[in-house]
Amino acid sequence: MAEDLTILKEATKEEKYQSLLPQIEGLIYGETNLVANLANIAAALKEGMDFFWVGFYLVDSEDELVLGPFQGPVACTRIRKGKGVCGSSWDQNKTLIVPNVDEFPGHIACASASKSEIVLPIIKNDKIIGVLDVDSDKLNDFDDMDHQYLKKILDLLP
Ligand code: SME
User: Fold this and answer.
1) pLDDT tens digit string along 42-89?
2) Structural domain includes residue 6
3) Ligand 1 centroid from CA 76, angstroms
4) What is the CATH number of the domain that holds 27?
5) Whole-model pTM over 0.90
6) DSSP state, residue 3
7) What is the Å distance from ligand 1's center to 107 Cα?
8) 53-61 and 78-80 beta bridge pairing
9) Domain count, the chain
10) 117 by DSSP, 3-state: which?
11) Distance between CA 136 and CA 114 in Å, rounded?
12) Ligand 1: residues whose CB is within 6 Å?
């Protein structure tokens, strides 16, 4: 059975990630179901990092992502390859950090409060199976530290 997360309130971003990483490892340990693991990762990141929106878009066909487990306000269900930050990250097979979503050509505004965003591809057996998308209601809220820790978290997936 899952236990409550230990959440650091008065801590730096790095301390929060460092505290969460082993807890997420424990949460998904021994579980191979992708949806269950993504659901718990989204919940742990939402609670532990206090993100505005965090969730997954999964490859549904050759040219479309579909909404997966997430935490936060309701979101768009489908994103075409190459569209928005998520579809671009998938298309380019790379992490995209967008300091101001209003300046990203083709950004898909699911929530008007969203101001900055980071999207990482999820790679399994050399194939992209989806993306992790984190949105902030503050400008310029993501940097390479987010990239490094979020990547470590995705690397925990079996
Ligand atoms: N803004 C994203 C769409 C997903 S939502 O933000 C949850 C994009 O441009 O791909």
Assistant:
1) 999 999 999 999 999 999 999 999 999 999 999 999 999 999 999 999
2) no
3) 7
4) 3.30.450.40
5) yes
6) P
7) 7
8) unpaired
9) 1
10) strand
11) 6
12) 53, 75-76, 79, 84-87, 107-108, 110, 114, 117, 133, 135
